[in-house]
Amino acid sequence: xxxxxIPLTLFSITTATALQSPLDPAININTNTNTNTNTxxNNALNNNNNMKTGNPILPGWYADPEARIFDSxxxxxxxxxxxxxxxxxxxxxxxxxxxxxxxxxRILDFANIPWSTNRAAWAPSVxxxxxxxxANGSSPYDYFMYxxxxxxxxxxxxxxxxxxxxxxxxxxxxxPLVPSTVFGAEPIDAxxxxxxxxxxxxxxxxxxxxxxxxxxRDMVSLKGGYLEITPTGYVEGPWMMKRDGVYYFLFSVGxxxxxxxxxxxVTGASPTGPFTTEPVKILSGNATVGTGTGHNSVVxxxxxxxxxxxxxxxxNDTERDHRVTCIDRMEFDAEGNILPVVITAEGVDVRPLx
Length: 354
Description:
Elements: E1 5-7, E2 28-32, E3 37-41, E4 62-70, E5 73-80, E6 89-95, E7 100-109, E8 121-130, E9 141-149, E10 155-160, E11 169-171, E12 191-194, E13 200-204, E14 211-215, E15 222-228, E16 236-243, E17 246-253, E18 262-268, E19 280-283, E20 291-299, E21 306-313, E22 324-330
Antiparallel strand pairs: 1-15, 2-3, 3-7, 4-5, 5-6, 6-7, 8-9, 9-10, 10-11, 12-13, 13-14, 14-15, 16-17, 17-18, 18-19, 20-21, 21-22
């Protein structure tokens, strides 16, 4: 594993209706004209079994889902899975229980980001921090979104203009936060991790290289230097999490357009490694449930139960952009190893947050 370090000084740090394919999975959508959002009841997906969420959990073609919990609400920030030219915005989804979801369309639109490529809007990451003196609105929090601004454009950062997780979000810098390739890592697939010591880390990287860099206290600047942390087999989609003092680095392996796509993980004693375990693959597709399983996030409502949120393709569907967002349980053994994930059509138990 390579772990070189590059000082930042070497780099120049410079609501509408969402598109939907006619082939999107059939669901019940009740439009709420007062809030310009859509409320989705997943009963159509789980055969009226109210005890399970069903899979997929979101309507339409969505990939690269980042799941978060803010207060008593689950949030998912995904990629709209379509041709590059149609990927010009980000939608979000919220739920009180993992069953009923509200769609928040176009929380960030590349039409308002002139330095973007106006295509290939990929894999956003949203994090909440205590509000700064310059925060908009009366919310006690700032919400920041880190996003891929298109092939070659870099990673940008936007802030919610309302102090709410549904945004809308507005570009902060007028230029990318991460402007170019670092250690061979394409500047895509951002993920932000806040450690227990309140240090905040930005992970990113495509083209089979993973990089981490610390974020400044303002959340819109970089601190220290870039560090390559590429595990064996890494392709894209980094996800850092911490459990019982152990840092788990999950990542996608294989090819996103075929059945080799999956998720592996390594562990270490710090958010920057070194990672001392060999990669273990924990998420794979199968021909009876779904294929092309990958680009995950992990959410836990109580620190005991863990859910992996990921995308996959429906059975017998070979169209590369036909990806749906799913959720399944993630289990650990007594030694803290992640067990192979069993992908299901049923999903997980409905889990209200209190």
